[in-house]
Write a structure and sequence with these properties.
27% strand; alpha+beta; 303 residues; five-stranded antiparallel sheet; globular; TATA-Binding Protein; 6 helices
């Protein structure tokens, strides 16, 4: 298969060049069978963080270098040389990304997102042993007290943990040339529905790209834009100029609220309680193809 260079400027102006194989050229069932990478869901991550803050545990972040090179393959795969070199030859029912170790003296939580890990435990020495065991097997690029994970910033204040994505919001604003826009007080005009955006001239531009960026943000730390993004994501097949203006309004709302954070607070009670709320919006059935159904889960006092 062929390959390509992926060049990035990471946080703190760190330059990174990664050579990747173009695996999409492989044919399933011929070149490979079932394959996966462990990726924890954002809801599961928030659940674990709720338990961690409730138990007042310290969190550590780890990153495994070249994680995909540590596996053993049964197949033989050949890749072309990268550009610049001469070629003279012509999921389970449970969350599989959460690991818990309990003993009489302590308990340790590990969450996994491909090669990024969060480890928290009630005994720092036990956590240190686990980290060292991982170091014995894998080369780690970092193992430090966590202040960031997957681009989500962590801020500790007493028995509270705040999650924010200000840097991500600014990155999206810059990418879509909205860094200097005028902030909006709401993501969309109140009581807006997708039917308000289906008529008009067709928009030809990065509509899906912006919807994807906003969906990721809404599913991690900004549920306040979830309804608005969901509303505009329903017309991705034939987006209009008015729908694009709606997405830009969401960006203007984010411009004024980039410092908004999700707050995890420790409960006064040690009893773990889960509450579930469900609601459906049936009155819009005649206006759109899919009705709106919402579910809300809270663990202790955290959504």
């Amino acid at each position: 298969m062929s390959c390509k260079w992926v060049l990035r400027i990471k946080r703190n102006n760190v330059y990174k060049a990664r050579l990747v194989a173009r695996g999409f050229e492989q044919k399933p069932g011929i070149d490979y069978c079932e394959t996966y990478a462990p990726i924890i869901s954002m809801s599961s991550l928030r659940l674990v963080l709720t338990i961690i803050i409730q138990k007042n545990l310290e969190i550590y972040a780890l990153d495994i270098k070249t994680a995909f090179l540590n596996g053993d393959r049964q197949e033989t795969i050949y890749m072309e040389q990268p550009m610049g070199y001469n070629d003279n030859s012509g999921r389970l029912n449970c969350e599989a990304c959460i690991f818990v170790r309990r003993s009489k003296q302590s308990e340790i939580f590990i969450v996994l997102y491909v090669d990024d890990l969060l480890i928290a435990g009630s005994d720092d020495s036990e956590v240190g042993i686990v980290i060292q065991l991982l170091r014995n097997e894998f080369e780690m690029s970092k193992a430090e007290v966590a202040n960031e994970f997957l681009g989500i910033s962590f801020e500790y204040i007493h028995s509270k943990l705040s999650l924010g994505q200000k840097a991500y919001v600014e990155k999206v604003l810059n990418k879509f040339r909205m860094a200097d826009c005028k902030p909006s007080g709401t993501p969309l005009v109140p009581k807006s529905t997708s039917s308000d955006f289906v008529n008009g001239e067709r928009f030809h531009g990065p509509y899906r790209e912006l919807v994807g960026a906003l969906l990721y943000l809404s599913m991690t730390t900004r549920p306040d834009i979830l309804y608005s993004v969901n509303c505009l994501s329903q017309i991705q097949e034939q987006p209009t100029n008015s729908a694009w203006a709606g997405l830009k309004r969401i960006l203007r709302y984010l411009k004024g609220t980039s410092e908004f954070q999700l707050l995890f607070c420790k409960s006064d009670s040690d009893n773990i309680m889960i509450n579930v709320y469900v609601d459906a919006d049936y009155w819009q059935i005649h206006m759109i193809q899919n009705l709106f159904l919402g579910t809300l889960f809270s663990l202790m006092i955290v959504l």
